[in-house]
Write a structure and sequence with these properties.
131 residues; alpha/beta; Rossmann fold; 54% helix; globular
Length: 131
């Protein structure tokens, strides 16, 4: 199974140890699921961690390396403009480019789609309840 996590899941995992988001990342690793990410998603995660959470360069570098190790980097191949929040469109682009089966998000607007081009969109809670 191929999965794309919304940027906020990564951010929560790094900011709140023991959070549901962190559990989701551990679940991906334990179940050997193929997690997909793009450079654009990594950039968004680092931008928020640096700006909103004042993370230092060294911590951001470690975060970037970790994300590259835990996920497969997908090259985006087309622009999608479906959601109001531009960074959320990058999630859809990554899922389409990586031929993902699932998007996991907490974003209400994205969750309302329920699916996009055959890719199911579910909440973090739903993902953690599976299996």
């Amino acid at each position: 199974m191929k999965i794309v996590f919304d940027s906020n899941i990564y951010i929560s995992a790094f900011v709140v140890p023991g959070s549901q988001a962190e559990k989701a990342i551990f679940k991906v690793i334990e179940e050997n699921v193929s997690l997909m990410i793009s450079k654009e998603i990594i950039s968004e995660v680092l931008r928020v961690l640096a700006g909103k959470f004042k993370r230092e360069k060294e911590a951001l570098s470690r975060t970037a390396v970790y994300l590259s190790d835990v996920a497969n980097i997908v090259k985006l191949n087309r622009k999608i403009k479906v959601l109001k929040d531009e960074p959320d469109n990058r999630i859809l682009e990554c899922a389409v480019a990586g031929r993902a089966d699932l998007i996991v998000t907490g974003d209400k607007e994205m969750l309302r789609l329920k699916e996009f081009e055959g890719i199911r969109i579910i909440s973090l809670k739903e993902y953690l309840e599976q299996h």
